[in-house]
Amino acid sequence: MPATAPLAFFLILSGAAVGSFMAAWADRLPRGDSVVSEPSRCRGCGTRISWRDKMPILSWLILGGKCRTCETAIPKRLFYAEISGASLAIAAIWGAQSPLHMVLGALFLWLLLGLVMCDLAAFRLPNALTGLLFVTGLGLAWENPFRAPLDGLIGAAAGAGAFLLIRVVYQKLRGREGLGLGDVKLMGGIGAALGVTALPVVALIAAMAAMLVAILVGWRKGERPGSTEEIPFGAYLAGAAGLWFLIG
């Protein structure tokens, strides 16, 4: 609608910036570096990156994907993250039923994007992201006229409770951790946003995707995937939740 065009344009521009921020977070997470207090620097020469080289998408294209000072290649994943952030904003705008739904939907998808990247980079789901996901999920539940006021809390309790139970039972039976607490918190946020009925579908999609990738990776390496192989299952859960949010 014309009335929401400025908001939509703002979200698309913000999406590229959010994607860049999430990529930087995931990149620094394994090293324990702060994404807020520490300035961005080139990995090659250590030069502090100026504001003109931080413009999402444009800076990467202008510089040809290289550092202005030493021409060290900038990881393509940063560029792809910026494109993904903007694309998710467009997807949220396309399916929005109201301006508030547009904003909450974009925020929900951006948080899922950040969680996917962090889990793939460091097998970690930061509390800040899962906490914001939970709050955003409650906002989506409250904003939806077809859901009861307490539906978000019920969905969160069901998602987190089910995965906490799986975590405890698996640890008792196998003597080792199968699911991290990050996955439990993640499912709480997903349950709040999507509701109880979506949880089995999201879990099934994530499990099937994880299994398929493990088989393909094992086949490519010429080996059978081991039962103790660590899998970033949170990334699959977040991806499945985003997919279901858009098409479900």
UniProtKB/TrEMBL annotation:
<feature type="domain" description="Prepilin type IV endopeptidase peptidase">
    <location>
        <begin position="107"/>
        <end position="215"/>
    </location>
</feature>
<dbReference type="Pfam" id="PF06750">
    <property type="entry name" value="A24_N_bact"/>
</dbReference>
<feature type="domain" description="Prepilin peptidase A24 N-terminal">
    <location>
        <begin position="14"/>
        <end position="94"/>
    </location>
</feature>
<dbReference type="InterPro" id="IPR000045">
    <property type="entry name" value="Prepilin_IV_endopep_pep"/>
</dbReference>
<keyword id="KW-0808">Transferase</keyword>
<dbReference type="InterPro" id="IPR010627">
    <property type="entry name" value="Prepilin_pept_A24_N"/>
</dbReference>
<feature type="transmembrane region" description="Helical">
    <location>
        <begin position="231"/>
        <end position="247"/>
    </location>
</feature>
<keyword id="KW-0645">Protease</keyword>
<comment type="function">
    <text>Plays an essential role in type IV pili and type II pseudopili formation by proteolytically removing the leader sequence from substrate proteins and subsequently monomethylating the alpha-amino group of the newly exposed N-terminal phenylalanine.</text>
</comment>
<dbReference type="InterPro" id="IPR014032">
    <property type="entry name" value="Peptidase_A24A_bac"/>
</dbReference>
<dbReference type="GO" id="GO:0004190">
    <property type="term" value="F:aspartic-type endopeptidase activity"/>
</dbReference>
<feature type="transmembrane region" description="Helical">
    <location>
        <begin position="152"/>
        <end position="170"/>
    </location>
</feature>
<keyword id="KW-1003">Cell membrane</keyword>
<keyword id="KW-0997">Cell inner membrane</keyword>
<dbReference type="GO" id="GO:0032259">
    <property type="term" value="P:methylation"/>
</dbReference>
<feature type="transmembrane region" description="Helical">
    <location>
        <begin position="191"/>
        <end position="219"/>
    </location>
</feature>
<comment type="similarity">
    <text>Belongs to the peptidase A24 family.</text>
</comment>
<dbReference type="GO" id="GO:0005886">
    <property type="term" value="C:plasma membrane"/>
</dbReference>
<keyword id="KW-0378">Hydrolase</keyword>
<keyword id="KW-0511">Multifunctional enzyme</keyword>
<keyword id="KW-0489">Methyltransferase</keyword>
<keyword id="KW-0472">Membrane</keyword>
<keyword id="KW-0812">Transmembrane</keyword>
<keyword id="KW-1133">Transmembrane helix</keyword>
<dbReference type="GO" id="GO:0008168">
    <property type="term" value="F:methyltransferase activity"/>
</dbReference>
<protein>
    <recommendedName>
        <fullName>Prepilin leader peptidase/N-methyltransferase</fullName>
        <ecNumber>2.1.1.-</ecNumber>
        <ecNumber>3.4.23.43</ecNumber>
    </recommendedName>
</protein>
<dbReference type="Pfam" id="PF01478">
    <property type="entry name" value="Peptidase_A24"/>
</dbReference>
<dbReference type="InterPro" id="IPR050882">
    <property type="entry name" value="Prepilin_peptidase/N-MTase"/>
</dbReference>
<dbReference type="GO" id="GO:0006465">
    <property type="term" value="P:signal peptide processing"/>
</dbReference>
